[in-house]
Structure formats: C-alpha cells, structure tokens
Amino acid sequence: MPCKPSSSKVRALAQLHAQIRRCDRCPLHRTRTQAVPGVGSAHAEIIFVGEAPGRREDLKGEPFVGAAGKFLDELLASIGLSRDEVYITNVVKSRPVSGPPPGRNRAPSPDEIVACVPWLTQQLQLIRPRLVVTLGRIALEHFLPGRKITEVHGRPQAVDGVTVLPLYHPAMALYRRDWTAILKRDFRTIARLTRKEPQRGRRIPQSRT
Ligand code: SF4
Known about the structure:
By secondary structure, this protein is of the alpha/beta class. 44% of the residues lie in helices and 14% in strands. Iron/sulfur cluster is lined by residues 20, 23-26, 28-29, 35, 92-94, 112, 115-116.
C-alpha cells in the first residue's frame, strides 16, 4: 500500500528525533541523561521554541515539564490548543549543566548553540509552520539577533518568510507577576494570528510555586 504523504512526514520527524537522540556534536552529550528533541505534531502550524532542557526535561526526555510546562499547557488551553496540536522544542536539545551531579541548569553557551541549531533548522524545514513562537531570550536571539524582548514581545515579526512571535519565557514569567500578565495577553496574539478564539470563561492561575 502506498504511503500517505502525511505519514511520511510523521516518520521523517521520528527519524530526525532519533538522530538528535544519538547526537554527539557538542560536549553536552556527555552530561545529559538523554537529548530532548521536541514534542507535538509533525503537521503543526505553530512551533514553540524555548532555550534548552532543564533537569526535569533531561530526565523525562520532553521539553517544558514541571511548573513552567504546566503553565505553558494552561496558556495553550486558554487559546483552545493542546500540546498535540503544536510542536514544542528548544534551540539546544541537551541540558546545559554546571557543577557536580545533578548540577545546576545554565544558559547554553554560544558554541553549544552553534552546534545544535542545525537540528532546529531541520525541524523547521520539515514541519514548515505558519508561526514560530520564541519563548525567552535565547530563542529570540536566534531568530531576531540584537532585539530586546521588552521591545518586541507580542509583536509579530517577518523572518525569512515566516512569522515569528517573540514571547517571554514561561519559567521567568512564573516569578514576575507583571510578565505573567503580559504573557497571557501576548498568547491571545497567537489566537489572533492563527484565527483561534480564546475559550470563554477559561481562567489561568495568577501564580504558582
Ligand atoms: S546540545 Fe545539540 S549539538 Fe550538543 S550534543 Fe545535544 S543535540 Fe548534539
């Protein structure tokens, strides 16, 4: 039986994930539990791009778990979306860590970003989203070098024929009430750009610990 084009795209993404899990292009492969390629649909119209896996993500093999991940799920639900309908990944796929095990999460170095970005490029070329949503500073710097999140958050930007929407990182927003409110408001821009209306009566918790 001939393969459907859609299933070949799903298989291609699975193969790409397998390649990322075997990747040893930078020293982070020595300290990770596992690489974290991404999660979601190969047919997603929206890709969310964060910074790098933290400890929880490294253990589970999935991006955005823990409190920040729950908050992201709630933000998605507030505009009628679920993880299954979008694709979520990071600029860097293995956990940047410092100190003795289990170590502290840290921002990826420029060398680590350069080594890992080709994977993100392949993900974007395969999925071909309508909208790329950057979460936090590292992803913003990759798509819009030199721009400040305080100036561009919530404002769609055209980058190489794709719409890029810069947003604050959910993990940071959890600790700043003003950023939490901004992130909630900016998420409605996603709904507007993709013509998804926010669910009426859906509440997002004000804060969490
Ligand atoms: S961070 Fe990226 S480049 Fe480095 S080992 Fe992991 S997958 Fe490979």
